[in-house]
């Protein structure tokens, strides 16, 4: 019997090592990005401003910004592009900071409202989501770092088409749909069906309650903003979708992870080195705190809703929001925002 267990353990170990090696090889396929600010005509494919030579100043990182090496906190910007056509240049209508807090062993997720009106480096003031279309992820990162005094160097970008495929790969996600959301979700589903002419149309939702949404239905859910508390509630839906997606991916068998990674890599763009991806993945799996803590900037009571140049915008008190954001990211997260017990626990 002892020999049997030793043999079984040896086989399992070999399979896990093989899976890890395969995952490492698969990560080579990730679509990288030079992080050259496309709004700067001085940058080109032959520019010295390459990923290896990109300086903290290029990314708007000040000397006062908390450093990951000192805090044990790594921040990654997540961009969701509101594309209507594949490969279309678009604004980043979803902007989140994913925080891997090794000190407190917790993941934190902060939504940055797309209509925040603030300075874009090298440009005039505008909505924060325009930085991506002006200069790609490099300028978007620089905008966040400059305005909130952060040390962000990495990003991940996915568009609606990619997010749909990723969610389908994990078998859909459970979402408690409200009755008043259904007409708006179905309207988005209809639009996505028309945009995806080469795929089979997905069905509309017919009833409220907890149900498994497929990729297209979940993307439609995340896009709804004309019911509830407008774009504020939409950011809650977006975080909800990511949390449920994380739960499904986290609970997959290690032997199934290579298949998931292989299927989703074509839809992800990032400058994260593969060694960093593996390191962060191992760290997260070892976290004792299994909740994802959440926040949103601008925080309540720290902004004004205004019309500027014909745009409805949120004008934040940057100093207040910077202080609150730092307290959330680098503290224990006690000022996190709860969006419901159904979505906080990722056990």
Quick one: CATH superfamily?
LCP protein
Which radius of gyration do the C-alpha atoms yield? 21 Å
Strand content: 15-25%
- Tell me, what's the shape? globular
Which regions have little confidence, pLDDT < 50, spanning 5+ residues? 1-26, 44-52, 339-347
Q: Fill in the CATH topology.
A: Aminopeptidase
What's the total helix number? Answer: 11
Mean pLDDT: 82
- Summarize the biggest pleated sheet: 6 strands, mixed
The class by helix and strand makeup works out as: alpha+beta
The number of distinct β-strands equals 12
Which sequence of strands runs across the widest sheet?
Answer: 9-6-1-2-3-10
- In whole angstroms, the N-to-C terminal distance is 33 Å
**Helical percentage:** 40-55%
Characterise the protein shown here.
This protein is of the alpha+beta class. It has a single domain (2-168, 242-344), classed as Aminopeptidase, CATH 3.40.630. Helices cover 40% and strands 20% of the residues. The chain has eleven helices and twelve strands. The strands form four sheets. Strands 9-6-1-2-3-10 form a six-stranded mixed β-sheet, sandwiched between helices. Strand 11 and strand 12 (311-316) form a beta hairpin. Helix 5 (182-195) crosses helix 6 (215-223) and helix 6 packs antiparallel against helix 7. The model is unreliable at 1-26, 44-52 and 339-347 (pLDDT under 50).
């Amino acid at each position: 019997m002892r020999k049997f267990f030793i043999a079984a353990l040896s086989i399992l170990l070999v399979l896990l090592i093989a899976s890890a090696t395969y995952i490492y090889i698969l990560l080579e396929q990730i679509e990288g990005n030079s992080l050259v600010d496309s709004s700067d005509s001085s940058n080109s494919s032959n520019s010295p401003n390459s990923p290896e030579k990109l300086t903290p100043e290029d990314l708007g990182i000040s000397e006062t910004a908390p450093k990951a090496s000192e805090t044990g906190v790594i921040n990654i910007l997540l961009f969701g592009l509101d594309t209507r056509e594949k490969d279309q240049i678009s604004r980043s209508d979803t902007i989140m900071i994913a925080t891997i807090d090794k000190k407190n062993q917790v993941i934190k997720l902060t939504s940055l409202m797309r209509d925040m009106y603030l300075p874009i480096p090298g440009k005039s003031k505008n909505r924060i989501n325009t930085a991506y279309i002006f200069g790609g992820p490099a300028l978007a990162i620089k905008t966040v770092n400059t305005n909130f005094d952060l040390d962000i160097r990495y990003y991940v970008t996915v568009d609606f088409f990619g997010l749909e495929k990723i969610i389908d790969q994990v078998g859909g996600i459970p979402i408690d749909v409200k009755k008043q959301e259904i007409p708006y979700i179905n309207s988005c589903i209809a639009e996505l069906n028309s945009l995806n002419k080469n795929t089979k149309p997905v069905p509309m939702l017919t009833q409220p309650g907890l149900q498994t949404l497929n990729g297209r239905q979940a993307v439609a859910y995340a896009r709804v903003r004309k019911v509830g508390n407008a774009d504020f509630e939409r950011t809650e839906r977006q975080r909800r979708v990511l949390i449920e997606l994380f739960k499904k991916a986290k609970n997959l068998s290690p032997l199934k992870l290579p298949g998931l990674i292989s299927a989703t890599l074509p839809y992800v763009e990032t400058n994260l080195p593969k060694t960093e991806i593996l390191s962060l993945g191992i760290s997260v799996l070892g976290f004792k705190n299994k909740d994802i803590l959440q926040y949103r900037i601008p925080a309540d009571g720290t902004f004004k809703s205004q019309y500027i140049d014909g745009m409805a915008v949120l004008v934040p008190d940057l100093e207040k929001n910077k202080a609150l954001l730092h307290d959330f990211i680098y503290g224990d997260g006690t000022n996190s925002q709860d969006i419901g017990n159904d979505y906080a626990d990722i056990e």
